[in-house]
Amino acid sequence: MFGQFNVLQSLPELPDLFSAPRCIMFNDEILICGGPETNKCYSYHTLRKQYKYICSYPSDISLRGHCVLQWKHSQTKVNEIHLLSFGGQGKDIIKQTFSMTYQSVWDNNSYQNVWYINGYQRNFKSEPSSFVQTLNIWNRHEQDNKIGTIEDDLEGVCGLIGGKNNDLLFITHNPQNIEVIDLKIMKPLIGIRNNIMSIKKHQYGIYYHCFVPLTMNNEKVINHFLLFYPNTGLLIKYDEQNKTFDYEELPICPYLQNIRSYSFVYCNDCIFIFEGLNIVSFYRSKNVDMYSMKDKIWSKCNFILPKETSATFALLDNNNMNVHIIGGKNAQNETQRTHLRINAFELFEKSQLYKMANANAQEIVRLRKEVEKMQLERPYVIPMECANERKEQKEVISNSSEEKMQTEMKIFEKQLDEWKQEKRITSDEMGWNDIWSYDGAFQQIKNKDLTRMDNISSFLKTLLIFRNSIN
Asked: What confidence category does residue 439 fall into, taking pLDDT thresholds of 50, 70 and 90?
């Protein structure tokens, strides 16, 4: 693909060797939480392009395919994130569960333990052992609050938080089990029916697999999940009231037959899999595969990684614009410090981007109708007759939330009008260079549409907040 290297950037090397790490996005930070080679955890600041040490897991545990999730609850503060870490231990090994309340290590403006400053310069003046943390530590759960039994195989486990109230943890692990944990009491639900997944047997079972929520129009469908493994494709549905699982077979990925140690992300109702190690030829891949949730079709992306790799971790940044590829092993089976960033929309084909742009235009029309509806439901002037009622009217109109909503709607309406009147060039009017050049007309239109998508989401969210505050 022309211009590929303009959209793939090599970022500062990781401060430690990482293969199969587990990572979480938090504001402008990527939290890198241990792996088989190291129990250390770091924060990478996406704007400063620097790393800081956070803490370490206890030295007496191993992390082979553990799972780290963001754990939300009512006590969460804006500047905090609650993390839950479990698994990483195989059968007949005592299981470990940890939780952490993380506050940004960047808030204190201290550069004492920055690993990279101004590019790739390493700073050895502050070692992790000398950094004192009071808040950001992994708290080990007691035996009765641990996830998994000694008989369970939780190496390569996957987990997702769901439920109508986001208080259920769904865990899939070897050989073909799915469990539900009540996060309020940290106990597995009893009486679950049909919790053995209907999968085709595989010599390695289900582990280090792809497990993501089903999305429609980029919104999660409650208690619906997708699971993919070399010989398995499942849509998993959970009936929360009746505590029952239901399964629907999906097309398996033809490119993953014998592939393991891959990473994945989901974006715009698609799953992208960054291939890993072929267990027959022991060849590592640099290919990327895509699954369309809407069309239920697998395809191979034209985009490829710059080198063969496996055991990476892939995650999207908060605005869904970039994919970060963390760590992994190279073609010589050497653990890497590699950190790559990819423009997420380079993974899509040109025709798919046109469809997304068209959907964006339809969303603008829908939002315009929503704004008009909000105006009718909450008129700017409420007629009153008596003096007291006129006084109440003044108080209502001066209400800060309503005034802010009016201002936001006017700004939004003006923006919608500008977009509607803007003349757009069509694909028929584009030349070869316009379509394929990295800075051609197509690329410019795509970047502008992506910015509009973010603006639409932000406008709508703001309006709904104001609307709820005055109803």
From this structure: low
DSSP 386: S
Q: What is the pTM of this model?
A: 0.73
Q: Which of 87, 68, 59 is nearest to 21 (CA)?
A: 68
Burial of 5 (0-12, 13-18, 19+ CB in 10 A): exposed
Cα–Cα distance between 167 and 102 in angstroms, integer?
A: 19
The DSSP bridge partners found for residue 324 are 315, 341
Distance in angstroms (rounded) separating the CA atoms of residues 29 and 47:
8
Rg of the chain's alpha carbons, rounded to an integer?
25
pLDDT in tens, 371-427: 666 555 544 444 444 445 445 444 444 455 566 667 767 777 777 777 667 766 666
Angle value at C-alpha 7, between 2 and 10, nearest 5 degrees: 125
Query: E strands, 141-258, where?
Result: 153-162, 168-174, 177-182, 187-188, 210-216, 219-229, 232-239, 244-249
Q: Name 379's bridge partners.
A: none
Element (H, E) at 368: helix 350-377
- Determine whether 105 is exposed, middle or buried from the number of CB atoms within 10 Å of its CB (0-12, 13-18, 19+): buried
- Give the three-class secondary structure for 411: helix
- Integer angstrom CA distances of residue 12 from 3, 16, 54, 339, 404: 22, 12, 18, 7, 42
For residue 113, give both structure tokens.
């333990």
For the record, the structure tokens of 280 come out as: 């027959």
CA dist 26 → 83, 100, 166, 321 (Å)? 11, 14, 18, 15
Mean pLDDT of the chain: 81
Which domains occur in the chain, in start order? Answer: 4-348 (2.120.10.80), 351-470 (no CATH)
CA distance 343 to 320: 9
Which of residues 17 and 431 earns the better pLDDT score?
17
State mean pLDDT over 176-200: 91
Q: Among residues of the chain, what percentage have pLDDT more than 70?
A: 68
SS3 294: coil
Distance in angstroms (rounded) separating the CA atoms of residues 64 and 62: 6
What's the pLDDT at 462?
Answer: 61
Q: Where are the alpha helices (DSSP H) in 155-250?
A: none
- pLDDT tens string 247-298: 999 999 999 988 999 999 999 999 999 999 999 999 999 999 999 999 999 9
For residue 140, name the pLDDT band (cuts at 50, 70, 90).
very high
